[in-house]
Design brief:
Blueprint: E1 5-7, H1 12-16, H2 20-37, H3 45-52, H4 61-71, H5 81-99, H6 122-136, H7 154-158, H8 163-172, H9 190-206, H10 216-220, H11 224-239, H12 258-265, H13 269-284, H14 301-310, H15 318-321, H16 325-338, H17 347-352, H18 355-368, H19 376-384, H20 389-404, H21 414-417, H22 422-431, H23 449-465, H24 475-479, H25 483-503, H26 506-509, H27 516-528, H28 548-557, H29 573-590, H30 598-602, H31 606-628, E2 638-640, E3 663-664, E4 669-670
Antiparallel strand pairs: 1-2, 3-4
Helix pairs in contact: 3-4, 6-11, 8-9, 8-11, 9-29, 11-18, 13-14, 13-18, 14-16, 20-25, 22-23, 25-31, 27-28, 27-31, 28-29, 28-31
Region (Disordered): 627-691
Protein name: Calponin-homology (CH) domain-containing protein
Domain Calponin-homology (CH): 122-239, 267-370, 392-498, 513-621
Length: 691
């Protein structure tokens, strides 16, 4: 497998302020400017910094020039990479101060885990350890290492081999990872460890996690703030899994009419949880609406009312009479314990207003006793609103793909979230930079319907410019929520991005357009090159349902990754499913960021099969390019470390302040956008060779 190259900075403090993903990306961009101009001067930095888009458009060139002049009076002076990093940190700090927002505000999804602040919440860490002990204590492999001591840092040592995180993902969404693909040995070599972390990161994206600037090396090092940020998202996804009409139709009781049901379907799970909580608080006579999981819960009164209405048999009258908030919080937790609720927090956490732990606690109360009864009429209406299986699968795929791009908006329900046009404009701007005229776009919340139509009309206009098939399609079709047309448009977006990424590997395509036929030809040629005879006629070929062809393709691009002792003949439905789940996990283990399900392989879903083939092709070509690169010299500031597979890309998060802009070296491949296909970063300092 290809070697892993880390970026070394002589000043250890400076190095600690960035993840390896950030350093590689910044180093690549810095080297690109240096190669163009022969050197980098202070004068080169302002336009360069603006192009990075790392400061949320907070500074223009003149403002950056003014800030830099305080540290670098002579703009003609040459600046080295470490000087550039210091200037970058200075600007980032000033951007944060100007915004007046805490860049490290914590939320489970879109968790802002960066390296400029290394403090971790000990209560959250202890709570996550208790959760892990509870759910993984009986795991055949992990039981030798569990339980962990919540007060220690053993968690950060145990995650270093990747097994724990992979297993935790399967607890959150069972079946996500085929555990046969996890490398489980007491002592793993660097390749095996890196494969586990790559599998973990790609699988985390496939269940809806958003990870900010985190790569496999960060997990190998067990960086506490990054590890906790990832674990918190995985646990949240587990706890909120049932907070949707599809999983819990009884939630229709929270709304009054059919229009409200549609609105409910578009809400984020945590918003539904708040709605559920307020529904019961209103019945209990609590006057103040709860708008968050922090300050509104600090005094414990809302909890007291909620538990009294849900479980009156365990009610303690002293709870509401308590004068001290901490004492009331303790009585609340005692009440919850009598209901058999898991205790995700301590009284101090309620009083301090810990949003993550409060959310986890409320979710646990919901699971234990939702207090919902079903109105038969509403229930039947909710059942009627459910999509067919294929539509649901496609919606899931596109939702996860969009969330992997790192745009500002997090998608909860594709069909609802695209209707104002803004989300689609964000996606278009990500995969085709500069295509959106933001001056003509309206940002949510949008009250005037015609503004939504204007946004969607621009979406359709750009789609036509990109040569999408949009015959008789108008912006109003999106506003009206036409599911068939929305899915068709999203597929064309995803396919366009996928093909552009392959095209951008210029050493392979010389900038020519890549077609489905090119991908088909490559897959057949790759399998044939190993001496195997399997070939497919197209991506609808029924023989693909056995899984054998894709396992042979994966083995062709990386011989050691497929354990043929685990492969079945694919003759029965059960054998096909075993192979399909193994294919997906092996591909993610390599570095492919894919969002299809085993059913898509078994049923030979042409679209999803194409994305899988393209993803493997992209990974293989990038690997060939990496192996064709000349070894970096020490003067370039890089040093070879343990040989690992290509690290997973960063996944941009909610705040562009922490984003590095996403362009990888001179290939113009967007980091976050490349999540569509393959989790690999190329920081080429020379024109790389082809396959």
């Amino acid at each position: 497998m290809s070697s892993y190259v880390g970026v070394h900075v002589s000043d250890q403090w400076l190095q600690s302020q960035f993840t390896q993903v950030e350093l590689r990306s910044l180093k690549s961009k810095f080297t690109s400017v240096k190669n163009q101009n022969g050197k980098v001067t202070v004068e080169d930095l302002p336009p360069f910094m603006v192009k990075l888009k790392a400061f949320n458009s907070m500074f223009n060139e003149e403002e950056i020039r003014g800030i830099l002049s305080e540290s670098f009076p002579d703009v003609s002076n040459e600046i080295d990479f470490e000087g550039f990093l210091r200037a970058y940190l200075n600007l980032q700090g000033q951007a944060t101060a100007r915004s007046g927002e805490a860049k490290h505000a914590s939320s489970f999804l879109k968790a802002m885990t960066t390296t400029l602040l290394h403090t971790i919440n000990e209560s959250e860490k202890a709570s996550y350890v208790v959760h892990i002990n509870s759910y993984l204590g009986d795991d055949p492999f992990l039981k030798h290492f569990l339980p962990l001591d919540p007060a220690s840092n053993d968690l950060f040592n145990l995650v270093r081999d990747g097994v724990l995180l992979c297993k935790l993902i399967n607890v959150a969404v069972p079946g996500t990872i085929d555990e046969r693909a996890i490398n489980t040995k007491r002592v793993l070599n660097p390749w095996e460890r890196n494969e586990n972390h790559t599998l973990c990161l790609n699988s985390a994206k496939a269940i809806g996690c958003t990870v900010v600037n985190i790569g496999t090396q960060d997990l190998v090092e067990g960086r506490p703030h990054l590890v906790l940020g990832l674990i918190s998202q995985i646990i949240k996804i587990q706890l909120l899994a049932d907070l949707s009409l599809k999983k819990t139709p009884q939630l229709v009781e929270l709304v009054d009419d059919n229009n409200d049901i549609e609105e409910l379907m578009g809400l984020a799970p945590e918003k539904i949880l708040l709605k559920w909580m307020n529904f019961h608080l209103k019945k209990a006579g609590y006057e103040k609406p709860v708008a968050n999981f922090s300050s509104d819960l600090k005094d414990g009164k809302a909890y007291a009312y909620l538990l009294n209405v849900l479980a009156p048999e365990f009610c303690n009258p002293a709870t509401l009479d308590a004068k001290d908030s901490k004492e009331r919080a303790k009585l609340v937790l005692d009440h919850a314990e009598r209901m058999d609720c898991k205790r995700y927090l301590k009284p101090e956490d309620i009083v301090d207003g810990s949003p993550n732990l409060n959310l986890a606690f409320v979710a646990q109360i919901f699971h234990q006793r939702s207090g919902l009864s079903t109105d038969s009429k509403k229930y039947s209406f909710a059942e009627m609103m459910k999509d067919d299986v294929q539509t649901s699968r496609e919606e899931r795929c596109f939702r996860l793909w969009i969330n992997s791009l790192g745009i500002a908006t997090y998608v909860n329900n594709v069909f609802e979230d695209v209707r104002n046009g803004w989300l689609l404009l964000e996606v278009l701007d990500k995969i085709s930079p500069g295509s959106v005229n933001w001056k003509q776009a309206s940002k949510p919340p949008i009250k005037m319907p015609f503004r939504k139509v204007e946004n969607c009309n621009q979406v359709i206009k750009i789609g036509r410019q990109l040569k999408f098939s949009l015959v008789n399609v108008g912006g109003n079709d999106i506003v009206q929520g036409n599911k068939k047309l929305i899915l068709a448009f999203l597929w064309q977006l995803m396919r366009y991005n996928m093909l552009q990424l392959l095209k951008n590997l210029r050493s392979h395509s010389q900038g020519k357009e890549i077609t489905d036929a090119d991908i088909l030809k490559w897959t057949n040629r790759k399998v044939r090159s190993t001496g195997r005879t399997s070939q497919i006629d197209n991506f609808k070929d029924k023989s693909l349902s056995t899984g054998i062809f894709f396992l042979e393709l994966l083995s062709a691009v990386e011989p050691r990754v497929v354990n043929w002792n685990l492969v079945t003949k694919g003759e029965t439905d059960d054998e096909k499913r075993l192979n399909a789940t193994y294919i997906i996990s092996v591909a993610r283990k390599l570095g492919c960021s894919i969002f299809l399900l085993p059913e898509d392989i078994i049923e030979v879903n042409q679209k999803m099969i194409l994305t899988l083939a393209a993803s493997i092709m992209y990974w293989s070509l990038q690997k060939a390019m990496e192996e064709g690169e000349s070894s970096p010299s020490p003067s370039n500031g890089t040093c070879a470390t343990t040989p690992d597979a290509s690290p997973a890309p960063s996944i941009s998060g909610e705040d562009d302040v922490s984003s590095l802009g996403g362009e990888v070296s001179n290939l113009n491949i967007d980091d976050a956008a490349s999540d569509t296909t393959v989790s690999s970063l190329i920081e080429s300092e020379e024109a790389p060779g082809g396959e």
